[in-house]
Amino acid sequence: ISIAQVYGVVSFYSFFSMVPKGRFPVSICLGTACYVRGAEKVLDEFRKQLNIQVGESTPDGRFSLSCLRCVGACGLAPVVMVGEKVYGRVAPEDVKGIINEYANL
Fold first, then answer.
1. Angle, vertex CA 60, rays to CA 81 and CA 47, nearest 5
2. What is the residue extent of each domain of the chain?
3. pLDDT of the chain along its 105 residues, tens only?
């Protein structure tokens, strides 16, 4: 298999990444329901608290930040996932508490 073929697969599928993900991947849903209920402000607060941008990881490798389009929990919008755990009705003021849950793990 050539490097070009591997790169083609890795860059095509969203679940592959060429950048290492953090131990606790944080994903913000930006689907329609989440977006209109303030997901962008939640994303901005995660950027601020973690001091990283979407697609980056914290220097200690603990957190990485990404966006999703829909997790199927529109009634709980805006939704954040940390690993497999889903947080619903997240407001910007909830972000620090969510991050702190993983501080000592």
1. 45
2. 20-101
3. 899 999 999 888 877 888 889 999 999 999 999 999 999 999 999 999 999 999 999 999 999 999 999 999 999 999 999 999 999 999 999 999 999 999 888
**Fold designation for 20-101:** Glutaredoxin (3.40.30)
Give the C-alpha separation, 90 to 80, whole Å: 7
Of 33, 43, 24, 32, the closest CA to residue 91 belongs to: 43
Query: What residues contact residue 2 under an 8 Å CB cut-off, 6+ apart?
Result: none
pTM of the full predicted structure? 0.87
